[in-house]
């Protein structure tokens, strides 16, 4: 059941929001020992919200999200509800206020089932970096659901909820959506308020959406988008009627750019075929295909992995640090040794290995003598990457590329090689650096070399700034003319 079907059922009194929420908790109860999606369940709150939603429906209110159960990534602040960022540092943290997007969803009648797992502080692409546990892919429990919004993906794909709110900093919604056969929408930077997110990379963090259909993603985006005086990076640009647009438009005459730099050696041949077949389907439906070039693509991953650790090192400084000052009158050698011993021990109880890795890389890149060589140069290359997109979007309306170079990998497969994990962002990071909207759409299934279970494949549709309605239209039309979204994992 997707959001539109559930809303119709609620309005026509086929079932109540309370019954729908109970059904979700029953599904969570029977599957979460396998999926490990949820860190915190909020059953009492959800039942109160569902009862209130039923009263609002009874009174004639007709909001598309009213009474619909959702999960929330545990990096989004929720008032009086444990918010851990899947980290030991914040394992007992209870915020005093809601994130702006939570306030907006509450006003629309969201029923929040609980907070879901992610890589600690959103550092990772598999949830294996969660300080608590690894989530599992509903299609193959031996594989990762992706990350960092892995709990969002496993909870939606596993039928535990109808949609989830996560974040996408360098692909953290799009990649797990691809791995789990879902719609994963990253809006334009500044389209949705970041106020109330536990910051990772402030210049690329985006509240994002995991849904079952493009139409559902349109409904959710319309509910959470807009200017927020608490976040100066939000845009004052008016919010489009996304659902109305995608239901009344097609792809005839849409110019689709296919960049040669994204179909490269190392891309799984079956994944490439799936994406090209999807492009051919859009062409059959009336789209015009244009070969394009984005020449600075090869610099996206190294640029992203200088900027991100640099901003991470700054953002995480508030959570942990050297607890004892340095006295100039004391013996310097003894003091420094003692301070570092305390620092190392405190870190061992707090930050995990990936957070420490990013802090150290970022602090180095920002340090005196290296700032110009690394961070400043990375920002200049970032400007060139954005310029590539700006120039191409004068010729095309959207760009289509693979979402990920592989299907979901096995749990533990890349644990000893973080660089391999970073390289998985090859098709995702440039979009984040340029601040563009993008949506991952299921476009097939591929049998991995190390397994028998067919795994989902995603294609990424990239749009001009604030043109979410265009990419969602392409996603919706393709979804309506293919069978991939109707296929569900067997748990």
Structure description:
With 491 residues, this protein is an alpha/beta fold. It has a domain at 3-248: Alpha-Beta Complex (Amidase signature (AS) enzymes), CATH 3.90.1300. It is built from 16 helices and eleven strands. It has helices spanning 3-11, 17-35, 43-58, 100-108, 150-157, 174-180, 214-224, 242-248, 269-284, 300-315, 332-349, 353-366, 372-392, 418-423, 429-434, 468-480; strands at 38-41, 69-73, 111-116, 163-167, 183-186, 207-211, 255-259, 288-292, 398-402, 438-446, 455-463. Helix 9 links the parallel strand 7 and strand 8. Helix 2 (17-35) runs antiparallel to helix 3 and helix 7 packs antiparallel against helix 16 (468-480). The two termini are 16 Å apart. Mean pLDDT is 93; it is low at 322-348.
Low-confidence stretches: 322-348
Query: Helicity range of the residues?
Result: 25-40%
CATH-wise, what's the superfamily of the domain at 3-248?
A: Amidase signature (AS) domain
Largest sheet: 11 strands, mixed
Specify the overall morphology. Answer: globular
Which secondary-structure class do the elements indicate? alpha/beta
Give the second-level CATH assignment, the architecture of the domain at 3-248.
Alpha-Beta Complex
Arrangement of strands in the largest sheet: 1-3-2-4-6-5-10-11-9-7-8
The name CATH uses for the topology of the domain at 3-248 is Amidase signature (AS) enzymes
What portion of residues belong to β-strands? 5-15%
Element-level helix/strand string: HHEHEHEHEHEEHHEHEHHHHEHHEEH
The total of helices stands at 16
The top level CATH class name of the domain at 3-248: Alpha Beta
How many β-strands, per DSSP?
Answer: 11
Q: What is the straight-line distance between the termini?
A: 16 Å
Indicate the radius of gyration in whole angstroms: 22 Å
Mean pLDDT: 93
């Amino acid at each position: 059941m997707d959001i539109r079907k559930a809303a119709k059922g609620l309005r026509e009194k086929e079932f109540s929001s309370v019954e729908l929420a109970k059904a979700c908790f029953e599904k969570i109860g029977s599957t979460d020992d396998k999926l490990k999606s949820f860190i915190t369940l909020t059953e009492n709150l959800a039942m109160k919200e569902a009862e209130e939603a039923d009263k609002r429906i009874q009174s004639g209110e007709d909001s598309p999200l009213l009474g619909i159960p959702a999960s929330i990534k545990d990096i989004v602040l929720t008032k009086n509800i444990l918010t851990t960022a899947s980290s030991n540092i914040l394992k007992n943290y209870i915020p005093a206020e809601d994130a702006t997007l939570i306030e907006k969803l509450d006003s629309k009648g969201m029923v929040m089932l609980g907070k879901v797992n992610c890589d600690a502080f959103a550092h990772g692409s598999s949830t294996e970096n969660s300080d608590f546990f690894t989530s599992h892919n509903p299609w193959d429990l031996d594989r990762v659901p992706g990350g960092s919004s892995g709990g969002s993906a496993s909870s939606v794909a596993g039928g535990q909820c109808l949609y989830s709110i996560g974040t996408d900093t360098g692909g953290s919604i799009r990649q797990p959506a691809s791995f789990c056969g879902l719609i994963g929408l990253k809006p334009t930077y500044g389209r949705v308020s970041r106020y109330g997110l536990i910051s990772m990379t402030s210049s690329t963090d985006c509240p994002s959406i995991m849904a079952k259909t493009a139409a559902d993603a349109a409904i959710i985006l319309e509910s959470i988008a807009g200017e927020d005086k608490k976040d100066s990076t939000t845009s004052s640009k008016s919010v489009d009627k996304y659902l109305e647009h995608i239901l009344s438009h097609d792809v005839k005459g849409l110019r689709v750019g296919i960049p040669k730099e994204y179909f490269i050696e190392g891309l799984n041949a079956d994944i490439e075929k799936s994406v090209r077949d999807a492009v051919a389907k859009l062409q059959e439906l009336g789209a015009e295909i244009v070969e394009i070039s984005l020449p600075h693509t090869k610099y996206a991953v190294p640029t992203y992995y200088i900027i991100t650790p640099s901003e991470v090192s700054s953002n995480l400084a508030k959570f942990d640090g050297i607890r004892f000052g340095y006295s100039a009158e004391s013996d310097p050698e003894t003091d420094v040794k003692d301070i570092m011993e305390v620092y190392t021990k405190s870190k061992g109880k707090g930050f995990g290995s990936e957070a420490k890795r990013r802090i150290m890389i970022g602090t180095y890149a920002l340090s005196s003598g290296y700032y110009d060589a690394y961070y400043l140069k990375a920002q200049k290359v970032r400007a060139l990457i954005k310029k590539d997109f700006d120039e191409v979007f004068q010729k095309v309306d959207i760009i289509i590329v693979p979402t990920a170079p592989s299907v979901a990998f096995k749990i533990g497969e890349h644990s000893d090689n973080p660089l391999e994990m970073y390289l998985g962002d090859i098709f995702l990071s440039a979009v984040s650096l340029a601040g563009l909207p993008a949506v991952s759409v299921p476009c097939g299934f591929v049998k991995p070399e190390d397994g028998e279970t067919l795994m989902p494949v995603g294609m990424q549709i990239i749009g001009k700034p604030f043109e979410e309605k265009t990419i969602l239209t392409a996603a919706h039309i393709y979804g309506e003319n293919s069978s991939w979204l109707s296929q569900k994992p067997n748990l």
